[in-house]
Design the sequence.
């Protein structure tokens, strides 16, 4: 078997994309300019971060990648001094982000980092609940500030209050300043995002490994069930849909919703009746904040939230109504989950041979359970709530530049790097201030058209799952838990590298996500909008899934994802619904076609294509 | 006399361990296992009362009782003479219609359950007191008339010379009524062994299963590489499934008393020998046995081709696991002060997940 992936310096450029590098920051390029940096790049394992990025990056959207690149790395390396782990380095190839965990090479240095880590991380673990409450206050404050940001076209003449209140600051400056504030808020919320996350994963990985010492081969999916929270914020949006579905049935509004009109038409009709008005009031209560949930992962500007497109949650409400009427179980059976979790823990505890082992198990279980609410909930605050509002603020800003003739369409802004937007704003405000013609319209429209062509070519490219040199064993905790990158997964990816040049793969290996074996027809889904095409009993095949896909899980028989470990959303949800799932197959969506008959073994982590469509 | 005590025949599922005075220990134990959720081959027991009815209704009881007295000193020769006479007397007597009718009706029900005409059964002696190996068990008996004939032979086996001398040495009487068990012969499509721990490392949260086609002999004596599974004892989900080569299988020869090896067809070798639900049922029952006895067990099982799932999953024999059970008490985790200490040590040593 091949023991190396393609060198990061040898990835062929896509014809017609020459010059693509200027879409991204210069330091994101693999480069041979500096032999030392090139040797480092060559020696590392770079894996495609498809968990977060199933699609290539628009230049502006890279902001979140830059934000977590800084926040996670700084946290590990400089703040908590995570003993063996430095940051995670990032590169971009043909629009796709590759990342690599960087370790502390010198074992003595690892030891020297321990006391500081003990002191600092210890403080967080001991005060976790209180600090998490503080965290929510900080993030809610930031969300309030974000909501307050408004972008408006520059005035022909400044308002007289500028003079009579002697404010002294002009709209041109304010536009630049507000843009900077917006960007800074985005970067800041990611600082908060990683305030707890790495510590959370460290505790979780410790639990997994202690449990594995006591019970060799215990599946990670079982361990996750022992620590999973019950009252999880990420499940609230779907719970709200279930509540609205039940309310609709109770108030005789179900038929109206099931008629499948647009959400706007349904709402207009609702407003005509008392029951309808009551339901609309309840809808409003649910929308803020729960409908800020993204229909995707929240990482891309085109991942609209439920609030952006009410047709999406309305369609899910209809699915829930149908399920309730058919007598199916909808939503999460909270009490059953609590009971099952407790019974599971008790039974394993009873199988531990010695008191010392039982104490070790109890210690690490307790801390894993303490950190887990954050690990599960932070996603909603940051990737969904904050990002959903943020994208729309950038659109507001884009309208200003559309008005100034810089862009033809408000969606053009995503083709600019965030620094380039600031340059364009300078162009705009100085020409406005001076009363001259900006260069922007002639410069950016041409550039944007060219960049759109590049993006299309990037979309059509299938990024290899990894580049560079795999280590003998993967020891970096975050890559394992979050991305499902383990030694065995890498081996399978390498097999995929061979198979891709052969006659096509008939078996894919990934990580066990949720146990059980099932056969069914595959349905490859690229975005939330396609969920409506799912048929009862099909196997969902996706790059990754989002919590807003929950209603679809009542229909499917199992799921396969390209990326993700036992902790990824698809795995968590499928365990709750008892659906066999294989995550992290690397190439599920490119190898499996809609209509193929597949068998998934959620225990072995294998997917077999039994019959091609 | 309670109703149960007047019965000629009792099904295993009607029995409890405490019923041994009525049906013998072997039969009563099978009933007890069933009560605990441990499934055995279906069947019924003829009671000690049936035996008593046989010797009274036929009028042979008095004669049978008088043999030994008439011989004087209980020498081996005298015992042999008494044995021959008693066996002859029993075999020549006609089983009363009430016993024949009930036995044949029960046998027909067993045939229906197995969806097989003249289903092969075993006919096994079952004493109310332990007399290890003193009496007979007959295998592969088919049809009503043979069944009745072998029931008589089993009754007669209580008067085999070894049994008589054993009784006399213990100071028991000459006359002895015994129970007779009539279980279906297990038609093993597959059979195997399960351990209610991981035999490689003693981990009690696992069940290890070896299973292959045919009778258990092939697996137990290591003549084939069976399919091997490691299953989580708590969730009953398989953790590892390894397909074995399963070249041959052991099947009964026509007499039913011995077995021979035959090749397994290629297509059967290339697939797993049990379905996912069969595996789960094997493990579920194994877990019941582990819980019932409160310790790890080594279990022989079979899946009967004649019976519908899950009745087809049958326990043949159980014994306590002996290797790891002696090593209990060894801890696996390192001594650490607290959770923080564990997290740091975890981070330093890194993660190696297979």
Sequence:
């Amino acid at each position: 078997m091949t023991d190396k992936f393609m060198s990061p310096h040898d990835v062929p450029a896509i014809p017609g994309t020459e010059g693509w590098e200027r879409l991204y920051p210069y330091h994101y390029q693999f480069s041979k300019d500096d032999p030392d940096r090139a040797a480092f790049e060559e020696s590392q394992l770079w894996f495609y971060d498809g968990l977060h990025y199933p699609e290539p990056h628009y230049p502006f959207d890279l902001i979140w990648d830059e934000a977590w690149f800084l926040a996670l790395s700084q946290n590990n390396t400089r703040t908590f001094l995570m003993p063996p782990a430095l940051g995670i380095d990032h590169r971009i190839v043909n629009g796709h982000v590759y990342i690599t965990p960087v370790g502390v090479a010198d074992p003595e240095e690892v030891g020297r980092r321990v006391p500081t880590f003990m002191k600092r991380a210890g403080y967080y673990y001991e005060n976790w609940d209180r600090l998490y409450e503080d965290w929510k206050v900080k993030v809610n404050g930031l969300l309030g500030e974000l909501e307050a940001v408004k972008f408006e076209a520059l005035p022909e003449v400044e308002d007289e209050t500028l003079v009579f209140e002697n404010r002294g600051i002009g709209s041109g400056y304010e536009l630049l300043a507000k843009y900077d504030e917006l960007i800074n808020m985005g970067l800041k919320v990611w600082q908060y995002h990683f305030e707890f996350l790495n510590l959370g994963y460290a505790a979780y990985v410790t639990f997994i490994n202690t449990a594995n010492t006591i019970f060799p081969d215990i599946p990670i999916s079982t361990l996750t069930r022992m620590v999973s929270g019950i009252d999880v914020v990420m499940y609230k949006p779907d719970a709200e849909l279930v509540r609205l579905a039940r309310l609709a049935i109770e108030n005789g509004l179900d038929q109206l919703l099931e008629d499948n009109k647009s959400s706007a038409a349904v709402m207009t009709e609702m407003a005509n009746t008392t029951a309808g008005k009551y339901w609309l009031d309840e809808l409003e209560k649910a929308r803020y904040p729960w409908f800020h949930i993204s229909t995707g992962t929240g990482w891309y500007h085109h991942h609209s939230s439920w609030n952006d497109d009410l047709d999406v949650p309305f369609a899910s409400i209809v699915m829930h109504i149908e399920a309730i009427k058919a007598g199916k179980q909808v939503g999460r059976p909270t009490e059953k989950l609590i009971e099952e979790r407790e019974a599971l823990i008790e039974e394993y505890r009873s199988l531990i041979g010695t008191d010392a082992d039982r104490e070790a198990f109890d210690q690490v279980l307790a801390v894993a359970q303490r950190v887990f609410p954050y690990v599960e909930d932070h996603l909603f605050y940051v990737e969904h709530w904050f990002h959903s509002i943020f994208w729309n603020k950038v659109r507001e800003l884009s309208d200003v530049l559309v008005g100034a003739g810089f862009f033809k369409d408000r969606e053009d802004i995503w083709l600019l790097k965030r620094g380039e937007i600031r340059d364009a704003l300078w162009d705009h405000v100085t020409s406005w201030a001076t009363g001259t013609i900006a260069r922007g319209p002639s410069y950016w429209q041409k550039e944007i058209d060219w960049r759109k062509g590049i993006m299309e070519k990037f979309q059509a490219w299938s990024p290899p799952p990894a580049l560079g040199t795999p280590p003998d064993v993967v020891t970096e905790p975050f890559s394992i838990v979050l991305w499902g990158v383990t030694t065995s997964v890498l081996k399978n990816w390498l097999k995929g590298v061979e198979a891709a040049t052969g006659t096509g793969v008939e078996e894919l290996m990934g990580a066990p996500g949720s146990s059980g074996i099932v056969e069914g027809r595959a349905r490859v889904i690229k975005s939330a909008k396609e969920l409506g095409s799912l048929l009862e009993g099909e196997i969902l095949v996706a790059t990754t899934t989002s919590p807003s896909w929950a209603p679809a899980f009542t229909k499917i028989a199992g799921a396969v994802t390209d990326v993700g470990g036992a902790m990824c959303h698809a795995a968590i949800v499928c365990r709750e619904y008892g659906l066999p799932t294989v995550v992290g197959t690397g190439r599920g969506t490119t190898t499996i076609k809609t209509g193929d008959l597949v068998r998934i073994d959620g225990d072995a982590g294998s997917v077999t294509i039994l019959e091609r469509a | 006399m309670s109703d149960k005590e007047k019965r000629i025949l009792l099904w295993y599922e009607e029995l409890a361990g405490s019923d041994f005075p009525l049906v013998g220990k072997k039969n009563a134990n099978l009933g007890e296992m069933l009560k605990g959720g441990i499934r055995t081959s279906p069947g019924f027991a003829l009671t000690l009362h049936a035996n008593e009815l046989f010797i009274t209704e036929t009028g042979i009881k008095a004669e049978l009782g008088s043999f030994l007295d008439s011989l004087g000193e209980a020498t081996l020769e005298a015992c042999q003479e008494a044995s021959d006479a008693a066996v002859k007397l029993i075999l020549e007597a006609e089983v009363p219609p009430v016993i024949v009718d009930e036995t044949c009706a029960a046998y027909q029900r067993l045939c229906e359950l197995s969806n097989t005409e003249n289903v092969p059964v075993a006919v096994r002696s079952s004493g109310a007191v332990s007399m290890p190996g003193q009496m007979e068990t007959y295998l592969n008996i088919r049809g009503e008339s043979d069944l009745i004939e072998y029931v008589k032979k089993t009754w007669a086996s209580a008067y085999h010379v070894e049994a008589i001398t054993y009784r006399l040495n213990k100071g028991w009487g000459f006359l002895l009524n015994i129970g007779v068990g009539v279980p279906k012969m297990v038609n093993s499509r597959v059979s195997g062994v399960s351990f209610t721990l991981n035999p490689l490392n003693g981990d009690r949260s696992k069940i290890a299963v070896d299973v292959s086609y045919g009778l258990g002999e092939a697996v137990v004596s290591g003549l084939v590489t069976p399919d091997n599974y490691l299953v989580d004892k708590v969730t009953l989900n398989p953790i590892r499934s390894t397909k074995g080569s399963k070249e041959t299988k052991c099947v009964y020869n026509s007499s039913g008393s011995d077995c021979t090896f035959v090749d397994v067809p290629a297509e059967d070798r290339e697939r797993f020998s049990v379905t996912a639900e069969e595996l789960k049922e094997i493990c579920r029952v194994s877990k019941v046995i582990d819980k019932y006895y409160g310790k790890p067990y080594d279990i022989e099982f079979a899946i009967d081709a004649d019976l519908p799932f899950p009745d087809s999953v049958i326990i043949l024999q159980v014994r306590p696991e002996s290797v790891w059970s002696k090593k209990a008490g060894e801890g696996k985790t390192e001594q650490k002060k607290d959770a923080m200490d564990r997290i740091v040590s975890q981070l330093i040593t890194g993660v190696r997940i297979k």
Summary: Chain B has two domains: 4-183, 188-327. The domain at 4-183 of chain B is CATH 3.30.1490.20 (Dna Ligase; domain 1). Chain B touches chain A at residues 198, 201-206, 230, 232-235, 237-241, 276, 328-336, 338-340, 342-344, 346-348, 350-354 (CB under 8 Å).
